[in-house]
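User: Could you write out the 3D structure of this protein bound to 2-acetamido-2-deoxy-beta-D-glucopyranose? I've included everything you need below.
Assistant: Certainly. Input first, then the structure.
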Amino acid sequence: MVSVARLKRLVQGLTLVAVAAYTTIVLYQSMSTAASSSRGPSRQQVSGWQERAPRSISKDYDAINSNIILPVADPAAVHRSHNAKVTRKTSESDTNYNNVVLATGTSRPVGTQLSDVFISVKTTRNYHKWRLPVILKTWFQLAKDQTWFFTDSDDLEYQEKTNGHMVNTNCSSSHNRKALCCKMSVEFDVFLETGKKWFCHFDDDNYVNVPRLVRLLADYSPQEDWYLGKPSIRAPLEILNRDKSAQKISFWFATGGAGFCLSRSLALKMIPVASGGKFISIGEKIRLPDDVTMGYIIEHLLRKPLTVIDQFHSHLEPMKFLRQDTFHDQITFSYSHYSRDEMNVVKIDGFNKRIDPTRFLSIHCFLFSYSSFCPR
Ligand SMILES: *[C@@H]1O[C@H](CO)[C@@H](O)[C@H](O)[C@H]1NC(C)=O
């Protein structure tokens, strides 16, 4: 499929990016070591909040044409895909990108599309038959080609139901730190291979409002460094730096259970520290779960701030406080069991609770009433 020459070009490009990123990190680390006595943890307090990316035609245009930053994408293919979208009605699929920008004249020439997004869902073998059916029936239908399930066993039944989108990570099925970091590590590596512009991670108890997710990402440039998600703690996490005893470091992290997204630009900068299984080593070193490890790598090691997106929701939040008239604007929903009989679920009229205990069917019909199983 991919020609040898192209593969070689790709490897060369990736190596270059990796070396550059590594050099930056080494430089950064030596700098921060030198400055460690003068810099306390005070910086981090404000770092979780950042304004949206200013977008401009010229910026996106330059990035695409220089084709240094885009790692895998064949620039010609990028042109083609943009043309395909912007000028779908005409048959001039070979007009160059220049013309398209001029022709559309909108402030969003590089409209992010669903096909630019890689969606990973973390699951485990015991949850396949409990948690996947409602996902497959609802939001998966809106992102079948983009969504992949990362699990820990081979499951022929679900391999078929997902059109071959189950990935056996070969990680342990226990819910411990190492197994979780192991899966995240595989998710990250598989994303890198796809060449997509955005990596979005979710859990198997998330409902993802797919069009809303795409609209969110369209507000940010994948050629800039973006870590989009929602913390579940009120202050940055403080841990002791194991390298330098008794030195405190603090950072924000996006709760994995609410979902988070990384731009390709940021993911590329993470390659030297987090790819090829290195993510697991870092998790082991700081002895914290996968989502915290992600925050540590991005905020602490790479010094890139988390951008808080309030419309992500994990089961750590009480779902009943979400107002139905805002559902169209929410990006994720979740559920959990408070006790045997009481569940933390979204408050919504719709299907009977026996048929729809998670409320995901009802949410889906509220958002997309045309779906085949929705009442008319
Ligand atoms: C898991 O192991 C199988 C069999 O050894 C292998 O084919 C597959 O590529 C592995 N999966 C990953 C994600 O490494």
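The first helix runs from residue 4 to 34.
User: Perfect, thank you.
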